[in-house]
Amino acid sequence: MIKQILAITSIVLFSSAIFAAEITPYGAFNYKMSHDENSSGVAYNKLEDNGSKLGLDFSEPSVEGSSIGAFAKLELGLDTDATTDSLTNRLSYVGLSYDTSKFAVGRQAHPFTSNVGGKTNIFNVYGSNADQSYADRSSQSLSFSTTQSGLTLDTLAIVDGSSSNTDAFDEFEGTISATLFGSDISVGYADDVNSDISYWGAGATTIVGPVTIGTSYTIKDAATDITGVEVTLGASIFTVGYQDLESTGVYYTAGVSKEIVSSLTVYGEGQMSDLDSGTDTQSWSLGAKYSF
């Protein structure tokens, strides 16, 4: 792991000496202790990494007299428990920007997942059990986004060379986002061409006094349609959530998080799962996250 980090650092330092790009490092060290029940109702305790990561944002401002700029991102997942292969590729892409529009290629985040399901993805460990989506991140993707007249269009397509698909794209999706009546609203569609499965959804974030309300409604349109409904409430250090996944179960989530210093947050979360299979489970976790 040390050799990998040193190699990345050397590349960054070399690149910054040659180009005028702005480079912003960021990351998080996230660790938790969990007490989870498995599908048989048997509880177990475990200390483990909870999504630590290291990243670099690159941006090249447009030259004088031009509106064209360049950007890139390298984000690695860091498994602090691993002794080998502790770094994995989360995001790595390069792109061009023009005014309020961006085009990028590489391994990227899915806008349907981020913009629709992201409205209720507020917990550190649990939650988001009912969000229907294709994936969080995918390689071999190209994206285009633009903002016009208060509307933001985000699109992504995957071209992975699948031998089973002769269409232009193996998967494509898009979302439209806007602020309406004080709410941040997104609607979206995703089509998994290879599997002949599509996804529809809408999500919103609304602030009412001290309470932030997140909602999402998603549909997985396959041989048998599956709907998912999620609602979350956040106020001060407290969060609660409700998720209902058709033909699977209902989930109740609650959490508390507190910033101890500007970079360190401690959190505790619990979840009760009322499953249609008849085996209900309960889980809780305690953790800490240092972000920079």
CATH topology of the largest domain: Porin
Give the overall average pLDDT: 92
Outline type: globular
CATH superfamily of the largest domain: Porin
CATH class of the largest domain: Mainly Beta
Helical content band: under 10%
Strand content: over 45%
How many distinct folded domains? 2
Count of discrete alpha- or pi-helical segments spanning 4 or more residues: 2
Task: Tell me which CATH architecture of the largest domain applies here.
Answer: Beta Barrel
Order of helical and strand elements = HEEEEEEHEEEEEEEEEEE
Describe this structure in words.
This protein is mainly beta and 292 residues long. It has two domains: 1-29 and 49-99, no CATH class; 100-235, Beta Barrel (Porin). It has two helices and 17 strands. The model has no long low-confidence stretch (mean pLDDT 92).
Quick structural summary:
The protein is mainly β and 292 residues long.
Topology:
Layout: H1 2-18, E1 22-37, E2 43-49, E3 52-60, E4 68-78, E5 87-98, E6 101-109, H2 111-116, E7 137-148, E8 151-158, E9 171-180, E10 183-192, E11 197-208, E12 211-221, E13 226-235, E14 238-245, E15 249-259, E16 264-275, E17 281-291
Antiparallel strand pairs: 1-2, 1-3, 1-17, 3-4, 4-5, 5-6, 6-7, 7-8, 8-9, 9-10, 10-11, 11-12, 12-13, 13-14, 14-15, 15-16, 16-17
